Amino acid sequence: MKQVTDNQYSLPTAEIDWQGNHPISSDYNDGYWAVGNVLAEKTHVFSGHHRLQEKAINSDYFTIVETGFGFGNNFLLSCQQWKASGSPGILHYIGIEKAPPSRQDLKRYLRQLDLPLSSWLAGNYPLPIKTRFALWPAVNIRLTLIFDPVDQALADFNYPADVWYLDGFRPASNPDLWNQTIYNEMYRNSKPGTTLSSFTVAGKVREGLSQAGFKVFKAPGFGSKKEMLSGYKPGNWQPSTIERLETVIIGAGIAGRSVQTALQKRGFQTTLLDSPQVPAASNVPTMNLYPQLSAVADQKSKYSISANHYALQYSIDVQTTTLAWKSTNRQKLQRMRTIARQFPDPYISEQDDSILFHEAGVASANRISTEQRHVADLQQVKDGWRLIDEQGKEIMRTQQVVLAAGIGMNDLQPIPLKLVRGQSILAQSDNRITQVTSGDISIAQVEDHLFHVGSTYQPDECDLTDRHEDSNYLLALLEQRFPLSDWSLHSSFVGVRAAPVDRNPIVGPVPQWQLLQQQPFTWYQNQSIPTQQGLYCSAGFGSKGGSHGPLAGEHLANLITGEPTPLTRYQQSHFSPARFWLQQAHQKTARKRHQRP
């Protein structure tokens, strides 16, 4: 196994000293819990301390944040209580961990537990990569694991918690978790009436939480620990509710279907419209799924890791497999090797002249029955939106609209999307090639001796004509890659991708463009961006719709409902449609400053 280089992608796993079945942290010289009945201890201090079942009854969603996820005891016990409540609402459990236990250590501990989701957690625990992973252990429970130091994770929070579990190691040995910056961020991300609890009653912790604004007091402890810490943010706690508006989604590709899936999970009535005039890029037999990575762990790469993981877990008709990335370009290959060495082998490894992505897959085309209507215009009315056809006639009215129409977005909103034509083919061969491949060429088996091969990349073109030269080009690449196979053309596919100039997806509420144009950039610094009520978009995924679209759909549903989103604040800002105005306004301001005498 290779030695992972110093990097910004991977986290070190916790060094565990096992004393029987009791894990001790070698880094902090402290146990993960007191010796004895761990589940009784955790229930008393955390999951049983916050009236969880009572609050679940009237909550459409409820948010628990734990600083120090550890071996997942508090998560498993909270899920047990949430299920026992019978609430149909969604429990959002957010666990922050900067030194997660290894999969081996986690499985060693969890196999001794008799809790409903312990085996699920053991089998679905992500590798220690610095990003956020959204997982659904049940239809109404979402676990968001944040593998980052707590201070960095909380600085990127922007959703209020209902409950805080402070379950890190003792304050004297873990000052990064117990400090005023953390307490202030907790207060900022709390609702009125939010409660907190902790095993520790250290005076500096009580003082810091009080200084942040919490009311704190000592409560009866567990076992030999006479006292524990309890507290709350002043104010009356109110359950979080969702206003379920009737929603029309324009666009039936991956982006639109992903939004529909996320909204329907939350009880929304949705209508999916598919335009016969828009050449969809999703109409291909297969899509290879793997993360898009850069040599430096930027936010775009971290999103790609999170989104690819989500797509592999929750997309329909996905077959997980190892994908081989290959290229005859030595410079590109060396770049990929540099990236691969920043990850553990179970995630990416090297083999000869291939880079192997072990968390990858192939998504098969999943066409669904939709209403075929072309929306030429949108008109905002008092109670929502009117959808207008090319003859100026009303198609329908709805309370809320999501634009997921790919290149059709250009006709509906001034969102800058460039067009990229792509052609792929189905090719036949007498040989069986089971290896899924990407890089210079993408290959995935559709059935015996039939393979989907793609694709060309032709910017600023939207011609849907099948080009023989493109098919021949792809066949030539195939013959170069597999020279002993007898390749022949079966059929071809042409589509037009929608790609933003900055290559970030466009996901979020649509701003009031005319109002923004009247404002200087400095106005934004103290104001929230004005948006068109009930109008959202999810588009601009380019060739990564299969990997990036499903998590974007979940994020957009979270924005609509007010739930916690698995995206960081940075990602939300840089994926927002308003970013294009911000970039232009910032450039204008910079030019004016430069022109001053």
Overview of this protein structure:
The structure is a single chain. With 597 residues, the chain is of the alpha/beta class. It has 17 helices and 30 strands. The chain has an eight-stranded mixed β-sheet with strand order 6-7-5-4-8-9-11-10. Strands 18-13-12-22-30-29 form a six-stranded mixed β-sheet. Strands 14, 15, 16, 17 and 24 form a five-stranded mixed β-sheet that branches. A hairpin with a 5-residue loop joins strand 20 (384-388) and strand 21 (394-398). Helix 1 packs across helix 3 (73-85) and helix 7 crosses helix 8 (203-212). The longest helix has 17 residues, at 545-561. The chain starts with 15 loop residues before the first strand and ends with a helix. The model has no long low-confidence stretch (mean pLDDT 90).
Can I get a quick summary?
The chain has 597 residues and is α/β, with parallel strands linked by helices.
